[in-house]
């Protein structure tokens, strides 16, 4: 009987509770106006307009017509460069992931309470992520010369910034129970990391590495535009000589590689879950 009365009271209280109100029309109208003003202001400042886009559509269609059919015989010429691009992405991602482990541990506030150490490293990660990979590649080309080595260094730094950021945020979200239990029994800092932190973070870390590798394959494909090796050099050559059918072949080849890597990464992530 009491349970019925309690249920009745609970239902009555639930009915009497104020329901959330739907957002007013004024808020929606102001939001739409703000977006429209932002688009118009950006278009004015960048000196762009939809009329220019419409006028340029025939030229875009002509370019697409020149790209097809692709030059299929060009496949043999770019296979070596594509393999070099993939190798650059593998090495750059691996080195960046290795360097990101200690950096993420030093950035995590629940593992490193020294703010004088963690905040400067976080600032360094933010600085790394603000520098485009093409600019990094250009800087390393000026230092080391032409070839895949500048591209590898550029991808390493890019991977360090991305994986380090994602990993230390995941570290701060781990369950503190195992960590406190290890501390209570007198475990050393290294033991706490190995036996309480690593089991909770390893699946996330591998997922971040795979995601970064996918990005690096795309990035490595254009680093050759600044002389950093890989398939990007052939983009520059074919576009410079207006050989758009060859460029189309490179795009199709790159798309196929990226889709295959994305499929493999998805399968690996499913096994980790």
C-alpha end-to-end distance: 46 Å
How many extended strands? 0
The 3D shape can be described as globular
What are the secondary-structure elements, in order, as H or E? Answer: HHHHHHHHHHH
What radius of gyration results from the CA coordinates?
Answer: 26 Å
Global structural class: mainly alpha
**With helices defined by DSSP (H or I, 4 residues minimum), what is the helix count?**
11
Low-confidence stretches: 1-7
Major sheet attributes: none
User: Approximately how much beta-strand content do the residues carry?
Assistant: under 5%
Overall mean confidence score, pLDDT: 79
Kindly state the percentage of residues in helix: over 70%
Structural notes for this entry:
The protein has 273 residues and is mainly α. The model is unreliable at 1-7 (pLDDT under 50). It contains 11 helices and no strands.
Describe how the helices and strands are arranged.
Blueprint: H1 2-16, H2 25-45, H3 50-67, H4 75-107, H5 115-130, H6 133-144, H7 148-171, H8 176-184, H9 189-223, H10 232-240, H11 244-272
How would you briefly describe this protein structure?
The chain is mainly alpha-helical and 273 residues long. The protein contains 11 helices and no strands.
Q: Any key phrases for this structure?
A:
273 residues, mainly alpha, 0% strand, disordered N terminus
